[in-house]
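Hi all, a correction to my earlier message: I attached the wrong file for Asparagine synthetase [glutamine-hydrolyzing]. Here's the right sequence:
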Amino acid sequence: MCGILAVLGCVDNSQAKRSRIIELSRRLRHRGPDWSGLHCHQDCYLAHQRLAIVDPASGDQPLYNEDKTVVVTVNGEIYNHKQLKEKLKSHQFRTGSDCEVIAHLYEEYGEDFVDMLDGMFSFVLLDTRDRSFIAARDAIGITPLYIGWGLDGSVWFASEMKALSDDCERFMSFLPGHMYSSKQGGFRRWYNPPWYPEKIPSTPYDPKVLREAFEKAVLKRLMTDVPFGVLLSGGLDSSLVAAVAARYLACSDAARQWGSQLHTFCIGLKGSPDLKAAREVADYIGTRHHEFHFTVQEGIDALEEVIYHIETYDVTTIRASTPMFLMSRKIKSLGVKMVLSGEGSDEIFGGYLYFHKAPNKEEFHEETCRKIKALHLYDCLRANKSTSAWGLEARVPFLDKEFINVAMSIDPEWKMIRPDLGRIEKWVLRNAFDDDQKPYLPKHILYRQKEQFSDGVGYSWIDGLKDHAEKQITDSMLMNASFIYPENTPTTKEGYYYRTIFEKFFPKNAARSTVPGGPSVACSTAKAVEWDAAWAKNPDPSGRAALGVHASAYEEAADAGAGAMDV
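and the right structure:
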């Protein structure tokens, strides 16, 4: 992952302004420690902090067309860049960067090329011939992007809020699947897949089609010129990513550079469910496995730094980001710069335990649509910013555009959790990889119950966070929370504690408005809380809050700090 900062149409184009842009761009250097670039044209500035994954030798940014009249700064990976270059044979490419195609596509097709890109990306493109510009973010929001407005009429774009929050009067998260055009004076959605209107699909379930679509999604993400691996928690999603990558790695270009043995990584408290399951999966598929441990105190000590980097006060996101943040530092120390990860599957297939209570297939499908549309505020934000804090790139095969189209076209009746038919959560995905002839995973791993990452690293992690917050936040502080924080008022001491840290780094109203709110149980949307009256009494985002569903569910009358157990 790289860091981009663009300031367009500012009144001041002095050396002092240039120095300020450089200073702000440095706030993103953790995202791109390999090189810094800056292009200035009159009152426009495009800055870039590079993490070199493809073409490390010559792909420094900003990137240009042939005569340098089109300038682009990009954060991301374009997996189909070779196919796109075939459509651009009349153009001369300066680098081997996958992102350079963006400048040439703009020359060839104008502003209507974004849907041609297959990848994860945020970019800002400046046409110096008329000083017009466009900005765009990938379909789901895997890469982060913010937009802001200065009092001088300038428009700002940045990979992280910290690079523009001090200088913009107002700013917000840039919507996924959208682009901003200065010529048209605003946003428009470029991503319009069949599932977006939430119409109920009717395509019959075909396990072979689903499996092949996912294998293709994993394989295209092995595009790399640097060492890489897979984040392996031992749950279904990360295990499938690792199993498919391990199976097909030998025939990839990456294997010719880095060998055919896959590296996998896991973190947890000693004795946690994830560590045990990940070790078993790694042994089964034959990876070189790296197991990291952390203590509750080490996680607590990292909280301020984690919240500074991930830029949210959402409780679930912070719980899960902290171990991921600690693990990413360890992975980077081994010389690895890119990892595959399993985010997105639960949203697409209704994998969270609260989906057991979905009353019908219509509400099940609509909830999956809502969850996918909100990923940029939760799991995508966590996966990107926790890893990018240490200059590590995370790629997410489940959020491949084509794979989502296949998975979201399935009649949701097949996704419904039906114990009477032996179908647990994500049965359609599990069944697609249930191959007795050439098994991908051991059966008990393939059918392991869903664990949210913050639970799976060790149940005492969440209990420890709650205990720590209890000592920091008094009863009277929580009682008066609505007066101190009238917007998204924290309802627990843990939430209040995270909010105080966030406000220290990001005190503006615009910053707190970038974080979603509302009731949630086991990661549900506010709408799905209505599925079970008992959930309103226990609005906790942990998977264990799904009363009557999780094997280690909180007792309704007991304290939420249940002891750990392996599943």
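Sorry for the mix-up. The two ends are 34 Å apart (CA to CA).
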